[in-house]
Specification:
heterodimer, A: alpha/beta, 2 domains, 4-stranded parallel β-sheet, globular, B: 199 residues, Fumarate Reductase Iron-sulfur Protein, Chain B, domain 2
């Protein structure tokens, strides 16, 4: 499998450990990641709020770069996924909008043709690599680890751009269970983590995150696993803020899905990657070593 | 007061809106000064690419009941926001904090029985709000960062050091020139650097 690797802004800037894990896993599962040269920001919700045409043009520019490479896009971030997928779907269907966007893109010498697809990490693993191959690659399964899967909003929503498939969450759960961990049902699983309001209205963001964390704590989980870097930051950093402002302690370690997979495949996390987590993940590492 | 100024009327017709006024306007403080209402506001929103949803809204309130923010605070109420658009309370909707509570999680988009895209309409309102100069600092910083460096989030110093140190190589390069060319063409720079602000 060969993909155009779209990193986005948040992962290289705030979570280099996520990127590192994906790069380490990829060769084991025969995934080849090709860098997208000169790719810009995906234009997430904050840019969409400012201007409609700018969003479409910027997202379409990334799609055009992948088209020129002749590859499908692999993204790690839910927000990039939503922005790119929505643009791709819209421009493929709507000829008028495509014409307008192409007029803007003509200035930088690009043209949207509609030949590429957008995939998020978990969907790519589920559909293209497959559960069988993944299970064969797992050498040190997590037996009995209770995991709260945090799918993130844009993995499945809005459903009309996901072509009627409601696969995202189930796919992610099956992938997590393939590592030997157990996915626990909890209240408000599909709800938003509050991350998008961070920086705009921190207090609301904190309370929305608290609702999720309450549900997870009530279900009695050991850790949270997510694919989205926004959810990761919100739940990881958010716990510290909730502790400071609302005096409530959760101590739920948050892991990227790639980290979980990497550990299950028998690769050790490096020191700096363990330290990157604000809520210490030593509990999980100890559990693993005890077995 | 609710004179038909534009020739082209949209799906919810005039009669419906008039009965709506009488029933619901008393909930709002300014109901006794009808001249402050903007009869074309709903059409303005509906004519933007993402604002079509306002035309089919039946005020059932599913958007509010599914909204994670509405669970936390009372100020944010998507149904009420749609109502205010239909009534034409332009300043209340466009100015102030109301449009900026939405998380864009798109739960309401899936739940709306009319296919009315409430979450998308939120973007239409925000686009108008930005044109009037109502933009929160957090979003403005992201937009300016996008124009200057081609990315919304710029890396912290420790992240850069970590990348170099642990063999991830340099930060992926963005073609800033192309990004700025696109953004100039869509007059994005004027929006975020105060060129077109009226307030």
């Amino acid at each position: 499998m060969k993909y155009a690797f779209f990193l986005g802004c948040l992962i290289p800037a705030r979570e280099p450990n996520y990127e590192n894990s994906v790069r380490k896993i990829a060769p084991e599962l025969d995934i080849e990641l090709v860098e997208m040269e000169g790719a810009n920001c995906c234009a997430p919700f904050s840019i969409q709020s400012v201007d409609y045409a700018s969003w479409l043009a910027l997202a379409a520019r990334n799609l055009c770069i992948a088209e020129e490479m002749g590859l499908d896009i692999l993204t790690l971030c839910n927000d990039c996924y939503e922005s790119l997928l929505m643009t791709n779907t819209m421009l493929k269907e709507d000829k008028q909008t495509r014409k307008k966007v192409n007029e803007i893109l003509a200035d930088v010498g690009l043209k949207f043709k509609g030949k590429t697809n957008v995939k998020i990490f978990s969907d790519a693993l589920y559909e293209d690599v497959g559960l069988e191959k993944l299970k064969n690659a797992i050498k040190e399964p997590f037996n009995g680890l209770r995991v709260a899967v945090q799918p993130g909003c844009h993995l499945t929503k809005p459903k009309r751009i996901h072509f009627g498939q409601w696969m995202g969450i189930t796919a992610l759960e099956e992938l997590v269970e393939a590592t030997g961990a157990k996915s626990i049902a909890y209240e408000r699983k599909e709800a938003c983590c509050g991350g998008p309001l961070r920086g705009v209205n921190d207090e609301v963001a904190m309370h929305v995150a608290k609702q999720k964390l309450d549900g997870m704590k009530a279900a009695g989980v050991d850790c949270i696993v997510t694919v989205c870097p926004f959810c990761y930051l919100e739940l990881d950093m958010g716990q510290l803020e909730i502790k400071r402002h609302l005096k409530e302690e959760y101590n739920l370690p948050v892991l990227n899905f790639a980290d979980l997979l990497r550990m299950a495949m028998g690769m050790k996390l490096e020191d700096w990657e363990i330290k990157a987590h604000r809520i210490p993940i030593t509990k999980i590492l100890n559990m693993k070593e005890a077995k | 007061m609710v004179e038909n100024t534009k020739q082209k009327r949209t799906a919810i017709d005039f009669k419906y809106r008039k009965s709506y006024f009488i029933r619901n306007l008393r909930n709002y403080k300014r109901w006794n000064d009808l001249s402050l209402l903007d009869a074309d506001f709903m059409c303005n929103i509906a004519n933007t690419p993402r604002g079509r949803g306002v035309l089919v809204c039946i005020q059932c309130g599913r958007c509010t009941s599914s909204c994670p923010v509405a669970r936390v605070i009372d100020e944010h109420n998507p149904r009420k926001l749609m109502e205010m658009i239909i009534l034409g309370l332009r300043p209340e909707v466009i100015l102030g904090a109301l449009p900026w509570y939405c998380l864009s999680c798109f739960t309401c988009l899936d739940r709306c029985p009319q296919g009315g895209d409430v979450g998308e309409t939120m973007f239409a309102i925000r686009n108008l709000a930005v044109k009037e100069g109502n933009i929160p600092k957090g979003i403005l910083v992201q937009a300016q960062s996008l124009f200057e460096s081609g990315r919304v989030v710029t890396p912290s110093r420790t992240a850069l050091i970590n990348r170099e140190k642990y063999g991830l190589g340099k930060e992926p390069v963005v073609d800033v020139e192309a990004v700025q060319k696109i953004l100039r063409k869509t007059s994005f720079d004027k929006l975020i650097y105060g060129g077109s602000r009226s307030i």
